[in-house]
Amino acid sequence: MKKVITYGTFDLLHKGHVRLLKRAKALGDHLTVCVSTDEFNAIKGKHAYTSYEDRKYILEAIRYVNEVIPEKDWNQKISDVVNNDIDTFVMGDDWKGKFDFLKDYCQVIYLPRTEGISTTKIKKDLELFD
Ligand code: C2G
User: Could you tell me which residue ranges the Cytidyltransferase-like domain spans (predicted)?
Assistant: First the structure.
């Protein structure tokens, strides 16, 4: 069984997130999504609208996702890959090059982001409405 892993906040889940998950799953048989906890988001300088528990609940309903685990810090990726027998690590290409150190442990693939959509854009666009 070929296992894939990806990481993210996945706040206000949108088509860009789902397309990433769909393409990641297509690279193997099993997709693990490592979702940033609320505490780690604070470290990342992000404030998610949706709590970790709710973002986990939503992702577990996505047909491409097999397992959801917490991302608590920047330094867990190697142990996640080793401990979960991961074959392929996938991220959107806004992270291109940032995780190449994982090439010693698994395949590393950066996929093109979906243009025109982001959680930040959603938040800004919603400010325009009452
Ligand atoms: N993404 C995408 N297209 C978009 C928006 C996001 O392909 N229009 C991808 C991102 O490239 C990322 C994933 O969806 O691979 C999740 O995006 P975020 O929730 O913004 O993830 P981020 O906050 O960048 O967290 O340790 C890694 C970090 O946890 C990544």
Answer: 5-124
Ligand 1 atom nearest 11 alpha carbon: 19
Residue of 44, 98, 103, 121 with catalytic role: 44
Contacting residues for 119 by C-beta, under 8 A, at least 6 apart: 9, 11, 12, 14
Distance 114 CA to ligand 1 centre (A): 10
- 43 φ, ψ to 5°? -65, -35
Tens of pLDDT, residues 23-82: 999 999 999 999 999 999 999 999 999 999 999 999 999 999 999 999 999 999 999 999
Which residue lies with its CA nearest to atom 2 of ligand 1? 113
Q: 46 catalytic, yes or no?
A: yes
Compute the distance between CA of residue 113 and CA of residue 27 in angstroms, rounded to an integer.
16
